[in-house]
Each structure stands twice: as structure tokens, then as C-alpha cells.
Amino acid sequence: xxxxxxxxxxxxxxxxxxxxxxxxxALEFVKTLNSSACRLKVGKELFAVAGxxxxxxxxxxxFDVFLDLKYHDIPNTVAKAVQAAARMGVxxxxxxxxxxxxxxxxxxxALDELADVERKPLLIAVTVLTSMEQEDLAEIGLQGTPEDNxxxxxxxxxxxxxxxxxxxxxxAAPLRKLVGSDFCLVTPGIRPSGSAVNDQKRIMTPVExxxxxxxxxxxxxxxxxxxxxxxxxxxxxxxLAGY
Length: 243
Ligand SMILES: O=C(O)c1cc(=O)[nH]c(=O)n1[C@@H]1O[C@H](COP(=O)(O)O)[C@@H](O)[C@H]1O
Prior knowledge:
- By secondary structure, this protein is of the alpha/beta class.
- It has a single domain (about 15-240), classed as TIM Barrel (Alpha-Beta Barrel).
- About 40% of the residues lie in helices and about 15% in strands.
- The protein is built from ten helices and eight strands.
- The protein has helices at about 25-30, 45-60, 75-85, 100-110, 135-140, 145-160, 170-180, 205-210, 220-225, 230-240, and strands at about 15, 40, 65-70, 90-95, 120-125, 165, 185, 215-220.
- Strands 1-2-3-4-5-6-7-8 form an eight-stranded parallel beta barrel, surrounded by seven helices.
- Strand 2, helix 2 and strand 3 form a beta-alpha-beta unit.
- The longest helix has 17 residues, at about 45-60.
- It starts with 13 loop residues before the first strand and ends with a helix.
- About 40% of the residues are buried.
- Pathway: Pyrimidine metabolism; UMP biosynthesis via de novo pathway; UMP from orotate: step 2/2.
- Belongs to the OMP decarboxylase family. Type 1 subfamily.
């Protein structure tokens, strides 16, 4: 894919958010992609129409899939849900950190206990959605800045045994200091300079996000809604050479 030899095809940093309304559009789009250039994220919209077989098909095609269903429920329900996700062969799955320690520990234990899955997915927790600002947090009773809340929830996720968190890249630098180098920081709200912000609030460019300490970048509309999606992906990958 990339002509830049520093680009690591074994560890693509961009997770393309396949936020399509139907599986045909998503499949047409995926046909243009290569698993060495990106990983794929399937979220609630596409999963609701395309389902587990679609996800399994992406896995069969060789893509690492982040199943982004943001589970937030009682521990038993979430434990069973992450096991079902793992059986689809996904690379990463997420829960909401606001579900609390018992829920996250149950999810982790459920994955550890799975005997019939060869490759267990990474389990990460959403901290504060990138579409939220301090006033939105205050309205739901969370005091402090988004960064305060992200740091607190990330600590909770780490001490509950999770592999990482979803946060904004704006929190990645302080978070990296707190959680060390092995904890995965997945950052949506990525906007190459000049692209539309849409409903995101806490944004950063791809290079800024990696410099701040992100492990992986979730990019949706700047790629999928572009007139030239592959060119945008290629440009981002080129800009990330060496990370
Ligand atoms: O968990 C996520 O992936 C997620 C968490 C978050 O805080 N913010 C966020 O935007 N996302 C997802 O990341 C993607 C961002 O898409 P774009 O805004 O189009 O780049 C969407 O699929 C969101 O559901």
C-alpha cells in the first residue's frame, strides 16, 4: 500500500469506521481496501443491519476488526456479550467504563475463560465520548473536565484488567504518563486538517494524535465520505510513517 518503507504493514494504525447504513455499501467500500493499510471498525449502525456473519466475513478476508458495540449492562450480560464477540473472531471489543469495575472485571474474566477461541480480542473501555464537552458531563452529573474524567475512568479500566481505553487524542499525553507504554489508547475524533468536524468536539489531526501517544486512530467520515477515500487513507498512512 504505502511506498514509504517506514509504514508498518503488520500494524496499521488507522481503524476505518465502517459507519454505513447497509451491508452492500459497506462491502463495496471494503473491496477497495487492503488489510495491510488499515483495520476496520464495525459499530452499532452497521452491525444492526449486517450482523455477525458480516463481521465474520471481514475477519475471513483477513481484516482485523474492532467490534464497537460499547457494551454497558449488568456484569453477566456484558460477560456473555464479549464472549459472543470473541467467537466472531474480532481483534478488539469495547465496553463502557461507566459500567464500573465489576462489569469490566466480569468481561475480562469471561474472555480469559473462553477455551474455544484461538485469538482472544483486546478488551478496551470507552471513557468519555469524543462528542462530549465539560458542559455535557456536568448535565449528567460528572464533575470536572473531560480530561479529569478520562484519567479517572482509564485508571479504573486498567486496574480492572483491561487492555486499553477509547479516549480523545487530546487526553492521550497525560494519559500515557498515567498508564504507561503497554496500555492501548484508541482515539476517535481524528480530523486531518481541513476536514469537516461534524459532531465531534475533542479532535486532533492524525500526526498530533500519534505524537500525543495514541496507539490507534479511529477515522470514519474523513475517509468514508471523501470523494477519494483511498487517497485520504494513503495520505494519513504516509503522514504516520515511523510511528
Ligand atoms: O468507540 C468509538 O469508536 C467511539 C468513541 C468515541 O468516544 N467517539 C467516537 O467517535 N467513536 C466512534 O468513532 C467513529 C468516529 O467516526 P468519525 O467521526 O466519522 O470519524 C464513530 O464510529 C464513533 O462511533
